[in-house]
Structure formats: C-alpha cells, structure tokens
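re: that complex we talked abt at group meeting.

here r the seqs, copy pasted straight from the sheet so there may be weird spacing, ignore it
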Amino acid sequence: MALTAEDMAPDFEFRPAWRLNDPQIEKDAVEFWNRLGILPKKVKPEERARELTAVAYKDGRIVGVHTARLGRLDQVRARLAMLRSAVDPDCRRTRVSFALTLYTRALLERWSKEHPEERLAGLGAILESRELAGRGNEPYWPTTRFILAGFMPDGRQLRISWFEDFRLD
Amino acid sequence: MRIGWRRDDARLEADAIALWERTGILPDDVTPAERARELVAGAYQGGRLISLCTAVVEPIPFLRARFVVLRSMTDPDHRRSHAQFALALPVRKALQDWALANPEEKAAGVIGFVEPGAWGDFDKLPVAPIWPLTVVAYTHDGKQVRACWFDHVRLDGARRAVAGPWPSRPKTWRPISNSAPPGG
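got the structure back, here u go
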C-alpha cells in the first residue's frame, strides 16, 4: 500500500486547495506568507493564493504550503506543474514538506486523470541546495518518483516526476 | 543470455560481429571489432545471437555526471521477439554491479537515446517498464533521452553529481534544448 502524507506526518492535517477557491484556506495561506515574510516583493499573496495545491495545518493554523504553476517544460516536451514549497521554520524537521509533496502529487495526478484535456504530465521542481539536506544527494526519490533531470545555471536541481497514467505525444 | 561487459567474451564478440556483418547495420566509420569491445550483453535463441547491447561511458553535461550510454539492436527477423525486454534486467544489474565495483569509473547511471517509434507503443511511456529508463530530455532531432540513475549513486555536495573531468565534446552526446522551466 502506498505511503500517504498522513502516514508520514501524522501530527498535521492536510487539506486540498487546488482549483477550489477556498476563501478560508487562501486567507490562512496569505496570513502564513505574511507571517513568514517569504514572498518576493513583486508577488501579491492574493495572486499566489490562486496557485495553492495543498496546505498543512497544525493547531489551527497553516504551517506548510504548496503552490504550483502549470507550464510547458521544453526539455521534456510536456506540461508540468512546477511546485513551490514553503514550511514554517518551526516545523522544518517534521517531514511535513515531504508529506505535502506526497499529498500534492496524489492530488494533481488525480486531477490530471479527471481532466485529460489539460495534458498535465507530472510535477516539476527546482530545488535550492538548502532544501536538500539528506535526501538531496539522492538522484532519484522512489517515494515521490522525482528524478534529477538537470541543473539550472546557478546550480539548482531540476527534478521531474511523471504521472503513471500519462502518455507522451 | 550472455553478459559480456568488460569481459572480453570471445564467443559473444564473434557472434556480434557476424550479426552486424549479416545486417550491415554499423556505420561505415565503425569497425565491428572496435564495436565488439563495447558489448554489454547478447540474447540468444536456438544458439543464435538475435539481440545485443553495446555501451560507452561518457560525460553527460546536462546531468553533470558520467553515464553508461547504451545502444541496442535486434536482428530484423526477430523484431517482435521481445529480446530487448529479456536483456533489460540482467543488463541493468550487470552495469550497476560493475559501477559499484569500479568507483573510479564514476558511472552514475545508464542513458539511452530512443528514436521516435523505435519502441512502438512503449515509447509513449515516460518511465519504461521493467527498467525505469525515464524521459529526462529530447535531442534536437527528436530522440528521447532516457536516463536511470544507479541506486548507490549520491551527488557531491547536493549540487554536482559524481563525475570526472568532462571533455569539451563528448563522443556521442548532442546538445539538447535546456530552456528554463516555467515558474523557475
């Protein structure tokens, strides 16, 4: 049986947000970003909130957020959901980010299957080296199926995770 | 099935040379004897070699690592024999075991270039069955670039894969488009 986000981080509550326009989650996510002050100045929290895929709650407040933007990655000639992740520094060692990745992957894979016209092939991520402690030196992550597929000019890793049912053109 | 990678297997080499000469498949600038030194494995049916793999170890710049670059061919009379599938698992194990036993070679995985249509319907699968060769790029002329990292490989400092110095022009590698991903 596949590992779930709840198995991995049982102290957290995971909620879907992708294309739900859930005003409470969006409000809580904006509060999270403002509290941590992590969004670039040019990004409006309300705009970023529309890209929410899933969030993690603990004690009634958001402590982890995943957002995604859909776009074509020319390198693999496919449309991917490029993930961004943010976790409250107080929860960094709780595996909540990894659990959110599992949750988001399952959520978007299901959404892709339900919306074949979107031709969403999988997930992509560009990883900062500071995000990689431990697992980052493994070129393949079997649990989330992310494979190292290249590097950005500044050395960040490009990873992709194909959905199982997707078929290439 | 015979594994021949770095074993100087005289029988496999002779059978491979006979297959190449019979099918006339090698490019003019490659001699069968040279290519035979790159043999990884061969699949036999009724005592006759019908399918084989060869490889070279080369740097793959966009992955910042050295990879075993795999080529394969099947006797045209046995195209539907699934001989390549039979080779997949033993070849993967042989190459991974060799990489583990020879760390100075700094081979981080296996990579292959798949011509459009060469795998039939299987080339629509982003991750190949049996052996998870995964689409990680395309060449300019439309070949799929499929890679599989060896299980034991770890990246150096979380930025650079284990790798030796790279020559300026790898022998088999052609540059690919590597534009910035969306949202990057």
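couple things i noticed - Residues 83-101 of chain B form the longest helix (19 residues). The first strand of chain B starts at residue 2 and ends at 3.
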